[in-house]
Design goal:
By secondary structure, the protein is mainly beta. It has 2 helices and 10 strands. The protein has 2 domains: about 1-35, no CATH class; about 35-165, Nucleoside Triphosphate Pyrophosphohydrolase (Alpha-Beta Complex). It starts with 14 loop residues before the first strand and ends with a helix.
Protein backbone atom coordinates (compact mmCIF):
# COMPACT_ATOMS: atom_id res chain seq x y z
CA UNK A 1 0.00 0.00 0.00
CA UNK A 2 2.96 2.23 0.57
CA UNK A 3 3.70 2.14 -3.19
CA UNK A 4 0.97 4.74 -3.77
CA UNK A 5 2.65 8.05 -2.91
CA UNK A 6 1.37 10.69 -5.33
CA UNK A 7 -1.84 12.58 -4.58
CA UNK A 8 -4.37 12.26 -7.43
CA UNK A 9 -5.64 15.80 -6.69
CA UNK A 10 -2.51 17.95 -6.29
CA UNK A 11 0.05 15.59 -7.82
CA UNK A 12 2.56 15.92 -5.01
CA UNK A 13 4.35 12.98 -3.39
CA UNK A 14 2.46 13.53 -0.14
CA UNK A 15 0.01 10.62 0.28
CA UNK A 16 0.11 8.87 3.64
CA UNK A 17 -1.43 5.40 4.11
CA UNK A 18 -3.27 4.97 7.44
CA UNK A 19 -2.57 1.25 7.51
CA UNK A 20 -6.21 0.26 7.17
CA UNK A 21 -8.47 1.93 4.61
CA UNK A 22 -7.40 5.35 3.36
CA UNK A 23 -4.66 7.58 2.05
CA UNK A 24 -4.52 11.24 3.02
CA UNK A 25 -2.61 14.06 1.36
CA UNK A 26 -0.78 16.14 3.92
CA UNK A 27 -0.69 19.14 1.52
CA UNK A 28 -4.20 19.48 0.09
CA UNK A 29 -6.12 17.27 2.59
CA UNK A 30 -7.47 15.02 -0.17
CA UNK A 31 -8.63 11.62 1.12
CA UNK A 32 -8.64 8.50 -1.04
CA UNK A 33 -10.62 5.62 0.46
CA UNK A 34 -9.70 2.00 -0.24
CA UNK A 35 -13.11 0.40 0.34
CA UNK A 36 -13.93 -3.28 0.58
CA UNK A 37 -14.46 -4.95 -2.81
CA UNK A 38 -17.35 -7.37 -3.32
CA UNK A 39 -16.52 -10.81 -4.71
CA UNK A 40 -18.48 -14.00 -5.32
CA UNK A 41 -17.55 -17.67 -5.03
CA UNK A 42 -19.87 -20.35 -6.40
CA UNK A 43 -20.09 -23.87 -5.01
CA UNK A 44 -21.13 -25.89 -8.05
CA UNK A 45 -22.57 -29.07 -6.58
CA UNK A 46 -23.60 -32.40 -8.07
CA UNK A 47 -24.94 -34.80 -5.44
CA UNK A 48 -22.06 -35.01 -2.92
CA UNK A 49 -19.35 -33.56 -5.19
CA UNK A 50 -18.07 -30.00 -5.54
CA UNK A 51 -16.48 -28.53 -8.68
CA UNK A 52 -13.21 -26.74 -7.93
CA UNK A 53 -10.98 -24.87 -10.32
CA UNK A 54 -7.19 -24.81 -10.13
CA UNK A 55 -5.73 -21.31 -10.33
CA UNK A 56 -3.49 -20.62 -13.32
CA UNK A 57 -2.26 -17.23 -12.13
CA UNK A 58 -1.07 -15.48 -9.01
CA UNK A 59 -2.06 -15.05 -6.33
CA UNK A 60 -2.07 -18.69 -5.17
CA UNK A 61 -1.29 -20.21 -8.58
CA UNK A 62 -1.83 -23.99 -8.53
CA UNK A 63 -4.21 -23.95 -5.54
CA UNK A 64 -7.87 -24.98 -5.59
CA UNK A 65 -10.45 -22.23 -5.91
CA UNK A 66 -14.15 -21.81 -6.46
CA UNK A 67 -15.40 -20.24 -9.65
CA UNK A 68 -16.20 -16.57 -9.17
CA UNK A 69 -14.70 -13.12 -9.13
CA UNK A 70 -15.13 -9.45 -8.36
CA UNK A 71 -18.44 -7.64 -8.63
CA UNK A 72 -18.44 -5.03 -11.41
CA UNK A 73 -20.01 -1.59 -10.97
CA UNK A 74 -23.81 -1.61 -11.34
CA UNK A 75 -23.89 -5.41 -11.12
CA UNK A 76 -25.61 -7.53 -8.47
CA UNK A 77 -23.73 -10.37 -6.80
CA UNK A 78 -26.00 -12.85 -8.56
CA UNK A 79 -25.30 -11.25 -11.94
CA UNK A 80 -21.59 -11.55 -11.12
CA UNK A 81 -22.04 -15.30 -10.53
CA UNK A 82 -23.68 -15.67 -13.93
CA UNK A 83 -21.04 -13.56 -15.72
CA UNK A 84 -18.03 -15.15 -14.02
CA UNK A 85 -19.18 -18.74 -14.56
CA UNK A 86 -19.68 -18.01 -18.24
CA UNK A 87 -16.36 -16.16 -18.61
CA UNK A 88 -14.34 -18.79 -16.76
CA UNK A 89 -16.01 -22.02 -17.92
CA UNK A 90 -18.72 -21.16 -20.48
CA UNK A 91 -21.37 -22.38 -18.02
CA UNK A 92 -24.84 -20.86 -18.51
CA UNK A 93 -26.42 -20.37 -15.10
CA UNK A 94 -30.10 -20.00 -14.29
CA UNK A 95 -29.94 -17.03 -11.91
CA UNK A 96 -33.09 -18.16 -10.11
CA UNK A 97 -31.33 -21.38 -9.01
CA UNK A 98 -28.45 -19.65 -7.25
CA UNK A 99 -28.69 -20.07 -3.48
CA UNK A 100 -26.95 -17.57 -1.20
CA UNK A 101 -25.04 -19.32 1.62
CA UNK A 102 -22.73 -16.96 3.52
CA UNK A 103 -20.30 -14.05 3.47
CA UNK A 104 -16.78 -13.83 4.86
CA UNK A 105 -14.06 -11.17 4.85
CA UNK A 106 -10.91 -11.90 2.88
CA UNK A 107 -7.87 -10.24 1.34
CA UNK A 108 -6.61 -10.42 -2.23
CA UNK A 109 -3.21 -9.09 -3.27
CA UNK A 110 -2.89 -7.80 -6.81
CA UNK A 111 0.17 -5.94 -8.11
CA UNK A 112 1.43 -5.11 -4.60
CA UNK A 113 -1.92 -3.76 -3.42
CA UNK A 114 -3.76 -5.72 -0.76
CA UNK A 115 -7.51 -5.51 -1.36
CA UNK A 116 -9.96 -6.21 1.44
CA UNK A 117 -12.86 -8.18 0.03
CA UNK A 118 -16.23 -9.39 1.19
CA UNK A 119 -16.64 -12.83 -0.34
CA UNK A 120 -20.26 -13.86 -0.97
CA UNK A 121 -20.77 -17.61 -1.26
CA UNK A 122 -23.47 -19.12 -3.46
CA UNK A 123 -24.44 -22.69 -4.24
CA UNK A 124 -25.54 -23.90 -7.66
CA UNK A 125 -26.76 -27.49 -7.91
CA UNK A 126 -26.50 -29.26 -11.24
CA UNK A 127 -28.35 -32.46 -12.19
CA UNK A 128 -25.26 -34.02 -13.81
CA UNK A 129 -21.59 -33.40 -14.39
CA UNK A 130 -20.88 -31.54 -17.60
CA UNK A 131 -18.15 -30.70 -20.09
CA UNK A 132 -16.25 -27.54 -19.24
CA UNK A 133 -14.59 -25.10 -21.63
CA UNK A 134 -11.91 -23.40 -19.55
CA UNK A 135 -10.59 -19.86 -19.71
CA UNK A 136 -7.02 -21.18 -19.55
CA UNK A 137 -5.49 -17.81 -18.64
CA UNK A 138 -7.29 -18.04 -15.28
CA UNK A 139 -7.88 -21.77 -14.70
CA UNK A 140 -5.54 -24.68 -15.45
CA UNK A 141 -8.10 -27.42 -14.74
CA UNK A 142 -11.30 -28.31 -12.95
CA UNK A 143 -11.61 -30.99 -10.31
CA UNK A 144 -14.73 -32.66 -8.90
CA UNK A 145 -14.15 -33.59 -5.25
CA UNK A 146 -16.33 -35.51 -2.84
CA UNK A 147 -17.36 -33.20 -0.02
CA UNK A 148 -15.49 -35.32 2.55
CA UNK A 149 -12.31 -35.46 0.42
CA UNK A 150 -11.75 -31.69 0.43
CA UNK A 151 -8.37 -30.83 1.94
CA UNK A 152 -8.58 -27.30 3.35
CA UNK A 153 -4.83 -26.61 2.98
CA UNK A 154 -5.17 -27.13 -0.80
CA UNK A 155 -7.71 -24.27 -1.08
CA UNK A 156 -6.24 -20.95 -2.19
CA UNK A 157 -8.00 -18.41 -0.01
CA UNK A 158 -8.56 -18.20 3.72
CA UNK A 159 -12.23 -17.22 3.38
CA UNK A 160 -12.91 -20.37 1.34
CA UNK A 161 -11.03 -22.50 3.85
CA UNK A 162 -13.20 -21.07 6.66
CA UNK A 163 -16.33 -21.50 4.55
CA UNK A 164 -15.58 -25.18 3.80
CA UNK A 165 -14.78 -25.89 7.44
CA UNK A 166 -18.48 -25.30 8.15
CA UNK A 167 -19.90 -26.44 4.79
CA UNK A 168 -18.33 -29.90 5.09
CA UNK A 169 -20.09 -30.38 8.45
CA UNK A 170 -23.53 -29.62 7.00
Amino acid sequence: MEDLKFCPKCGRETLIWDGEKKWSCRDCNYILFHNVAGAVAVVIKHENEILFTRRNQEPKKGKLDLAGGFVDPKESAEETCVRELFEEMKIKVDLSKLKYLASLPNTYEYKNILYNTLDLFYEYEVPEKFAIELEISEISETVWLQKNDIQLEEIAFESQQKFFTEYIKS
